[in-house]
Design goal:
With 88 residues, the chain is mainly α. It has four helices and no strands. The chain has one domain.
Length: 88
């Protein structure tokens, strides 16, 4: 997952940004629930780290990418071929 910043295709980077954020969020130790020292929070962190975190990360990335593509497809179907008019 470290090759994201080396990608030259802007469209691919745009499609992967949100799924990658969601996949890496599982192991982000800055979240309040993971900073807690309660037995439940400690067990949650230990369970994540003892498991196959590489496979879990890739599975989450795959799942979130599929969700992103499904949502984009649904959005395109709602537009019916029209171009949305909006300003940023």
């Amino acid at each position: 997952m470290g090759c994201f910043h080396a990608l030259e295709q802007v469209t691919l980077k745009d499609l992967l940004a949100i799924p990658l954020l969601k996949a890496t969020k599982q192991y982000d130790n800055a979240q309040r629930q993971k900073l807690s020292r309660s037995p439940k929070a400690t067990a949650r962190v230990n369970t994540r780290m003892e498991g196959d975190y590489v496979a879990t990360s890739w599975a989450t990335l795959h799942e979130e990418s599929a969700n992103m593509l499904r949502k984009l497809y649904e959005y395109q179907q709602l537009l019916g071929g029209r171009t949305p008019s909006y300003r940023v």
